[in-house]
Amino acid sequence: MSEIERYIAPNQLDDALEALAGGPVTIVAGATDLTPQITGGKRVYKATLMNIQHIEGLNAVTKKDGKIRIGSLVTVSEIRGNPMLKKHGGILCQAANHFASEQIRNAATIGGNICNASPAGDMIIPFLVLGAAVELARWQDDRIETRSVPLDEFFTGPGRSVARDDELLTAVIFDVPPENSIGFFRKSGPRPALEISTVSIGIGGDFSDGTLKNVRVAFGAVGPTALRGKLTEAALEGKTLNQDVIQAAALAARQDVSPIDDIRATKWYRTHLIGVFTEELLNNVCQN
Amino acid sequence: MAEDVAFKHIEKTSLIGKRIKKPDAPAKAIGKTRYINDMVLPQMLYGKILHAGRPHAEIISIDTSEAEKLAGVHLVITAKDTPDLKLGFVKDNAPLKSKVLCERDEVAAVAAESEAIAAAAIKLIKVSYKDLPGVFSAKDGLKKDAPQIQENFPGNKSLKFKFKHGDLAEAEAGSDIILDHVFNVHYVTHCCMGTSCAIADFDHNGKLTIYSQTQYPYNYKMDLAPALGIDPGDIRVIQPTTGGSFGAKLDVYPYEPVAAILAQKTGRPVKVLFDREEEFINSPTRQPAAIHLRTGCTSDGILTFRSADVLMDNGAYTSWGPTVPVIMMRTVSGHYRVPVIDFKAQAVYSNNAYAGSFRGYGNVQMTYATAQHMDMFAEELSEKHGMDPIEFHLKNAQKSGEVTPQKSYLRECVLAECLTTAAAASDYVNKHKTYTEACTEEGRYKRGIGLASSIHNAGGAKIHKSDGCGTILKMDDYARVTVITGASEIGQGIDAVISQIVSEELGVPPEHVTLVNNDSDIGPWDVGVHASRTTFIAGNGAKRAAIKAKKQILAAASKQANVTAEELDLRGGYVVQDKDGAAVIRLDRMLRQMHFQPTPDVVMVSDYYEPNSELEGKDHISDHSAAYSHAVHIAEVVVDTYTGEVKVEKVTMAQDVGRVINRMGLEAQMEGGLAFGLGFALSEEMIFEEGRLLNPSFRDYKVPTAPEMPEIEMHFIESDCEEGPYGAKGIAELPTIVIAPAIANAVYNATGIRFLNPPMSPEKVARAIWEKKQADS
Q: What are phi and psi of B298, to 5 degrees?
């Protein structure tokens, strides 16, 4: 652990971004990933530790002009209990339900879960299914400059993303899903609580008359980043769901993923589970 | 007659079998308890150990100069500073090592002003190693060209055990069915919530006070002394509140003498405290074993023989782990009536982690095998001969008065009652038949029900020359009782049980009983908390001491009341007439009257209770426990045949408890014990690669969490043990022992697949089901 030279806790976004622009900063919000990474020696503190919890305006969930905007400081517990999200982004609440434990859900933020860029990050999957983009802000020419990055272009590897060192993730934004949209999330692990995903999967789209359109499929813990299942999506797009289509999608899903063997599971088991869960979620869609 | 006793009558009541609150529970629940881990002594330094982190290597050089220069560092020590100091009961271990034999090996240690400085200093120690080829399994250790691990143990051969009874060849010839399987039981560890900790402090006369989590304070002195080169008499052991032991603290491990050596050399108290990762890597494990089990049976369902050949990976050093065959063979020879026995076990040194004692002590491993063989027989006999599975178990279940081939005398044996109670309560026979029929049908979720039983010592285990416990009891002028007992409290609940027993005898409320049991300079001898022995042994001691005190009080009162002592009793804080409960005198007043007279009569009594068991001899033929007990678990599971997840929905248990003492404590022991067995069966596993632990964290080492706990239906069968206090037997290990094979048998009932190698993790179960499907199609 290297020494922290300065600790700051700004209230305003511009102060935070100025500090980021000024040099190496470790950002902390809920600290549920950061603390074990530091104590486990997997990460070291930079000279400045910046607590972003007090920044105004980053902790709201709003629906406006056909978009839902979730501030980066919104906690997993807040997502889980948000009635508007239950109605318009139910898959987010499903994933929040399976996220770690009550204490961790109360502290963990959406921004943190995304920026940690774990291939097994549970909240990333529903956001990929919702077609979300992240908003990144930085201090440029004495003002805040923002850019939007589609979430499926955000991750570049385990723990890595396209966010620059001087950028702060300020919000996750997605279109309000149409009335006929559906979304299902499933994760696996030997335990029902406090479990890091062996694999996770989300499937969503618009569902009318037994047919799926605008399908999005996302997988977690089966590659270096959480990823979209393009072959699976193609196997489902515009198709009327029946057992043949479901079987074809499950086969495609197994081809979409390239998991590794590690101490948590073998490649065989992860691939097997992806097929099982794809089938299971599509059966859920049918029954819905 | 004094005014306050006029017209007062107190009925005879009993606390035995009632729910008694554990005195320290509220403080633990609200976080007020100060554990050893929280303790700070004035002038205390922090000790930190450098572990090798490699399995087998020569140490070429150690440079401690940078660490010594760091501000705040008081001392750095290596093996050079601790020559000739040995530990372990075969003296194959040392506080600090001059050669690396396993990943955890202690290479150097630091004492510093703060934990942070000590940790920084450790990183500044430069060690040059020459890695050596290692031995990473018992099998490899036995190979002719295997590297030698311990100099004094040629061929890597560690402990060896043997027991034979009857003519094996004849028994085999007389068997209609012979089962022959190898069960590989894996590495798990205790996961105490309080990580390992010791605080050592020497005075200027050379006497060591060690604050320790030990569960055997008196023999601990004997084991610690040679690791320090001092006399055991110069060690005082204080046991602050500890966050669990479960067998992990039944031996001395290197961090304890290291703390003491640092304290001795610096003249300051030194605390060594592990973080969680250190705890995983540097704590003892459960003894892993490859158990080659053969069992014979006639077509009438009568067991003919059992032979077990056990190969154990000893790891680099010998702690209690490789002694578990002592209990394994009692299971082989005593789990049901088996006339012919052939048991052998061999431990082999390797460069892996080493095992200690762990709740269930060999029986968790052996019952996983024997109880599955019983289920295999029941299946085959039911299929081929239409035999009812419970009938098969009952045919072989011992009855009271039977003696096993090792001479375990089953004085009060209620295995049959345990079997019939659990089977009836769970509707075992019907459900088993229904699920067997459904097993081959299509469908993702399969239900299964599985039965397992076992036997365990329930009145101590005389592996030392004395299995006894001393008790000193005194009463003050306010009728408050202090019990000084040798028995340690490590969370298991002897505090509540002794209060309850003393209260029962002396007619005072349990909360008026204070227990003193955490200082070896005060407490009388006891052999430690293990072997499910404490309620039985220390409970008997407390009862006997309380009866002595009662006799003394009633003798004094009888003179005053002009009746015989037999006509009096102690109830509700009074001396009363036994026949109608009429109060004679308040107890505190009585005690003051006894005290304040020309010849004072003060209540201070003592007792040493030695159970009527026999020493476990070299031939292993002795009645080594004062009681034996059985338990039956019936587990009901749902298996997701796609993901391999096994959900244990309900467990029906029937256990011979002798007699219920503290019902609340008993229920808690059943639940806690079951949780250990559940983790062992389904999710917990230490994963090693060439001697290195790959999952030293709770993220990747999966202890069960609350949602995984099944519904538990408990049936306590009271066999009324003649030797036990109020009839009680020891109870705490059986729930851990029996549950895993019950789950394995249930998974078989659901899927038709036997899992010989725990844990039954989702991947392993899914893979086996998938492979079976491939093979069938």
A: -90, 170
User: CA–CA separation, B509 vs B496, rounded Å?
Assistant: 12
For residue B769, give how far its alpha carbon lies from the nearest alpha carbon of chain A (Å). Answer: 12
Instruction: Give the CATH number of the domain where residue B499 resides.
Output: 3.30.365.10
Quick one: B604 exposed, middle or buried, by C-beta within 10 A (0-12, 13-18, 19+)? exposed
pLDDT at A188: 85
Q: Is residue B251 predicted with pLDDT exceeding 50?
A: yes
Interface contact B53, partner A, CB < 8 A: no
B115 inside 8 A of chain A by CB? no
Residue in B142, B135, B132 with CA at minimum distance from that of residue B99: B132
Structure confidence by residue, pLDDT tens digits, B297-331:
999 999 999 999 999 999 999 999 999 999 999 99
How many angstroms away from the CA of A273 is the closest CA of chain B? 6
Helix (H, G, I), strand (E, B) or coil at B769: helix
Q: Identify which of B653, B661, B641 has the alpha carbon closest to the alpha carbon of residue B677.
A: B653
- The token pair at A111 is 């921004």
A190 contacts B766? CB cut-off 8 A: no
**Closest approach of A269 to chain B, Cα-based (Å):** 6
Tell whether B704 is within 8 A of chain A (Cβ): yes
Chain B hits for A191, CB-CB cut-off 8 Å, are 683, 702, 704-705, 707-708
Residues of chain A contacting residue B687, judged by C-beta atoms under 8 Å apart: 263
- Rounded CA-CA distance B164/B754 in Å is 29
Asked if residues B501 and B542 have their Cβ atoms less than 8 Å apart, the reply is: yes
CB contact under 8 A, A269 and B766: yes
Q: Tell me if B643 and A273 make a contact (CB, 8 A cut-off).
A: yes
The label of the residue with tokens 């073998």 reads A266
Q: How confident is the model at residue A1 (pLDDT cuts 50, 70, 90)?
A: very low
Q: How far apart are CA B228 and CA B716, in angstroms?
A: 47
Domain that holds residue A204: 181-287
Exposed/middle/buried for B557, CB within 10 Å: 0-12, 13-18, 19+? Answer: buried
Percentage of residues in chain B having pLDDT higher than 90: 98
Nearest-angstrom CA–CA distance, B559 and B555? 7
CA distance B54 to B102: 6
Residues A152 and A188 in one domain: no
- Contact (CB<8Å) B643/A264: no
Co-location of B436 and B580 in the same domain = no
Q: Which residues pair with B680 in a beta bridge?
A: none
Domain assignment of residue B445, yes or no: yes
Phi, psi for residue B402 in degrees, rounded to 5: -75, 155
Amino acid in position B27: A
Give the one of B642, B694, B702 whose C-beta lies nearest to A190's C-beta: B702
Q: Which residues of B touch A266 (CB under 8 A)?
A: 763
pLDDT cut 70: percent of chain A above it: 98
Tell me the pLDDT tens digit for each residue of B323-377: 999 999 999 999 999 999 999 999 999 999 999 999 999 999 999 999 999 999 9
A104 interaction partners in chain B (CB closer than 8 Å)? none
Asked if B683 and A191 come within 8 Å (Cβ–Cβ), the reply is yes
Average pLDDT of chain B?
97
Position B446, amino acid: K
Q: Is there a single domain that holds both residue A158 and residue A252?
A: no
Q: Which residues contact A129 (CB under 8 A, 6 or more apart)?
A: A91, A183, A185, A202, A203, A204, A216, A217, A218
Q: What is the distance between the alpha carbons of residues A145 and A153, in angstroms, rounded to a whole number?
A: 19
Last residue of a domain, one of B218, B251, B282: B282
Type of residue at A175: D
A280 vs B contacts (CB less than 8 Å): 642
Average pLDDT of the segment spanning A10-38: 95
Q: What ipTM score was computed for the predicted complex, to two decimals?
A: 0.93
Does residue B473 sit in the same domain as residue B568?
Answer: yes
